[in-house]
Amino acid sequence: MKVEEGTLLWEPSDQQIKQSNMYAYQQWLANNKQLHLNDYASLWKWSVDDISSFWETIWEYFNVISHHPYQHVISSTSMPGSRWFKEAKVNYAEHVFKHKDNSNPAIIHASETRGKQEISWQQLYQDTTALQLTLKNIGVTKGDRVVSYAPNIYETVVAFLATSSLGAIWSSASPDFGKQSVIERFQQIEPKVMITIDGYQYGGKSFDRMAIIEEIQSTIPSLEATIAIPYLHADTDFSNLKQPITWKDAVHTSKPLELTFTPVGFNDPLWVLYSSGTTGKPKAIVHSQGGMLLEHLKATHLHLDLDQNSRFFWFTTTGWMMWNFLVGGLLNGSCIILYDGSPSYPDERFLWKFAEDTKMTVFGTSASFITSSMKKDIHPEEEFDLSALKNISSTGSPLPPEGFQWCYTHVKKDIWVSSVSGGTDVCTAFLLGSPTLPVYAGELQCSGLGAKVESFDSNGNSLVNEIGELVLTKPFPCMPIFFWNDDDGMRMYHSYFDTYRGVWCHGDYIKITEKGTSIIYGRSDATINRGGIRIGTSEIYRAVDQIEEVEDSLMIDLPQTNGDSITPLFVVMKNSKPFTDEVKNSIKNNLKTHCSPRHVPTHMFEVKELPKTLNGKKIEVPIKKILMGESFEQVMNKGSLINESAIEYFINLAREWNSSV
């Protein structure tokens, strides 16, 4: 069957619906609030029409522990500046350890250098307690910053939980981040303690980071101590680091201890995340303890359907907000699954084998991983036992309809495929899945409960079945409380509220359908506009990536003074196959058929690789600015790239073009 956008691929059975957490919540609303909201559309509408009542029911439904009662759910519905549950005092980690007596594993973890291990809730509790005492002895208290330069391993989760239990503020960078990227992030927030490893392995290759760590530490005078994890080598010498304490000593106890929780204001900081830093220093985005607590409870339990029997995996690094979201699975008593390493080492089938070995129920990944498995003709359903798997979730970029179809054809016929979209700015997704809704190819199932997502035209009119700017027209608890060192709030204001007054503008193009699903078309500032016909880059990539020989692609729209535009397409070929006229003609024909004749590129170039951020995203806008003549230094922070050398091609191309004008 030829799948198209909007093709119905799957529907939950009545039994699946009635066994879901979403259905249980609806029944609770009926029994306790006399709210009979029998379908998702009416539930969502109530949640955004009456955001105060909705979030108060989330508070009640999840039995949020507060050490001081709140007076009002929200201070004001104007944005920015809304404050939620102002008087309440909570602690994120306290809600994780509601489940400390759970007999199921808390964490399953593995890496390229470590075999699969299961961690009990009791061990997680004891290690967190011991590390909390170590942090206390160093002098860490509420509001202090603890930073991590460590991968997606068990110790990093323990470090986060111990930090947040004290009301201290967490921040992390993945060890594959370059020196300057880490310095530009951590210098801003002046941390007291650093958690670090000595090095890591990726794709079978070892990367020693000790010299880089010493350089990073030399630029951060606020650091008072280092908790060092011998990860690459068992006998690493950490003596040159600031006041080193080995992990073994940091979690050693001679007797059982009790974990204590420091209550903090609902709107006090939990962690600092960072924008990609493609222009200037990365924005240090601060989220609240309470906002993240409520949102992660809602998103993971209701939308992802997690409970104490779930095994929740997302392929992520500690430098991406999906790591924070993954840790949020612990709030439901779910077992979270961690993996550190390459998804294609020792071979392209590794993660599917890992899904079998860990009996994961939710497989979180990127759209690019799914499309890569599809292009490499992998057939997980034939090779692996995926009987435990209930859900495949995808984010990072739009999942094309063919990716949806591949999951049902080659992974599992009765599976719930959920494409989600949000971002670092809110450390969650606005657009999510629901276990009670059908799945349509290429479409995100629903807007999240409590998230008033709309599509706006340039005049601020709400659109249906038309592409517009993704906006939030009502406050959302996990919006940033502030940017670090943005004392007057103007940097945050200009980031989200400049386009439409009092409305959050996210920077993505979206179409919301009459049935409540949505389609993301890529970043709105990277849209392709030929002759007044605008199209999202995701549609371009969908058409180009259908060419078997093509590995990856990127298109840029360069406006010209005559009102027209140049649209170069950059193509990475698979397995070094030649970029022949036949391939070029196939690309042109696909774009004519799937997009329009106007969106056939004016130029086509073969490149060895595309520059991508540390989170693996294509950098369309900075490349556009470089090709339009802006200097590299103006538009790009080189340390924000995972493959710095890839940008040189575009810098040289810009010189050629601009010298010929």
From TrEMBL:
This is Acetoacetyl-CoA synthetase. It holds the Pfam family ACAS_N. GO terms for molecular function: acetoacetate-CoA ligase activity; ATP binding. PANTHER family: ACETOACETYL-COA SYNTHETASE. It comes from the Bacteria. Residues 104-475 form the AMP-dependent synthetase/ligase domain. PROSITE patterns: AMP_BINDING. It comes from Oceanobacillus iheyensis (strain DSM 14371 / CIP 107618 / JCM 11309 / KCTC 3954 / HTE831). Residues 40-95 form the Acetyl-coenzyme A synthetase N-terminal domain. Belongs to the ATP-dependent AMP-binding enzyme family. Keywords: ATP-binding, Ligase, Nucleotide-binding. GO terms for biological process: lipid metabolic process.
